[in-house]
Amino acid sequence: MFSAWKSAKISGPIPPSSFAALAGATVLLNLSASNVTIGKAEDRKQLCDSQSRRAAAAYVFAAAGAGESTTDLAWDGQVIAYELGEKIAEGERFARAPKLVIADIDVQRIAQERRRLSSFRDSVRAHGEAIAGFTAIPFNVSPAKGALALKRAVDRFPFVPDDLTRRDSDCYEAYNIQVSGLAKRLEATNTKRIVIGVSGGIDSTHALIVAARAFDLLGLPRKNIIGVTMPGFATSAESKAKAWALMNAIGVDAREVSIEPLAQRMLEDLDHPAAKGEPVYDVAYENVQAGLRTDYLFRLANKEGGFVLGTGDLSELALGWCTYGVGDHMSHYNVNGGAPKTLIQYLIRWVAEQKLFDAAASQTLLDVLSAEISPELIPGANPQSTQAVVGPYELQDFNLYWLTRYGMAPSKILFLAHAAWGEKYDYATLKHWLGVFLKRFFTNQYKRSAVPNGPKLVSGGALSPRGDWRAASDASAAAWLDELARNTPEALD
Hints:
This protein is of the alpha/beta class. The protein has helices spanning 16-22, 40-54, 107-116, 118-126, 128-131, 164-189, 202-218, 237-250, 260-269, 283-304, 314-319, 341-353, 359-369, 387-390, 393-406, 410-421, 427-443, 445-448, 478-487, and strands at 2-6, 27-32, 58-63, 79-83, 86-90, 137-139, 194-197, 225-229, 253-256, 307-310, 333-334. The chain has 19 helices and eleven strands.
């Protein structure tokens, strides 16, 4: 059972539905004897959109339609439904026959959002007397018999808007948030130079184009950005070529330093089988290379009087796919720490399409996007695939969003994932990668307890211990995995 309140007109500084929401209503119904005039339909949408956000609720608006008197007015019968600022259903306007609009409303999501919003709880306390007069209209919802398909669409890429106009706007904001954050840190530390490792992959590529824009903003020469590509045992010629092409196109101080001699010496000192030519490519083998790269960058920053710009992204932090301490986990400032992998891919494409750099740089950016995501640490892997180990980033970013943004139970995340991704991945595959996500997410919390500063980009999506995600370093995934096992089948019939 859940409750709804009938609401009066939504105009006015404080519409009655605001108090209804504070009194506990999750679904606000506005049955309005509203006539239509030019532009009024869009005004209603904006009001419903904003009120569903302000009240942290679902807002359903139904205007009067055919059958009303047209002595001096006309009616369009507009029916629209919004949930937390998202339009989930809309009916046909000016219909002559009765129309039924059906929408799925996620009341659990609304309740979770209200728990997260301290301002909502403050308002409940502040307006206790005003909301005391609202009376709930309880109604029971009988559970459906059998599986029902969702009437609403579930975004496959929740960190990236589907609407092209909004996507462009969000990319502009995300990119400039990163640029502004880095510019402020450069000013605050009076730093004129930075050092960045450039691999030819998407993360270092994006960090580099953010840095270049920040230096332009501050009037600093791009040659003060020291880009270093550091080939190791498995670095491909293609990746190294892309790194060089990008650094040259951006116009930074481009350098190359092979880590193979130092890595070989360290493997020998460790008495590692790979030092003798044996094909033993374990974690120690991989992290010798990752650690040496970061160690070199820090010492180079000391020598050049600058700081190290990090490149690791939000998705990697969520999955623990980073070498702790002296590895890609650490830097002096990380512009990508709040950016999920799926968003970074769109940001790079957006920068190329907006022609923020010259044609050669834009083409190189598009070339980088076409490559397999790989750490390139194991020889002969052709190439070594990150997603084969941690799962497709498009799925893991989906799981990350619903876990951290709304705290959804794994069984519900799987339900939503199947609705969004069921045409591409079967149910068993979705469940498998969700299990991998849960294990990796909680096991690697200790890495997120010590991360560099970096700008938050998406609401509710940052994992900084100083911000949105303050959790115990020894957290366990057991309860989450148990819920997934208990409340979901192994496969769908």
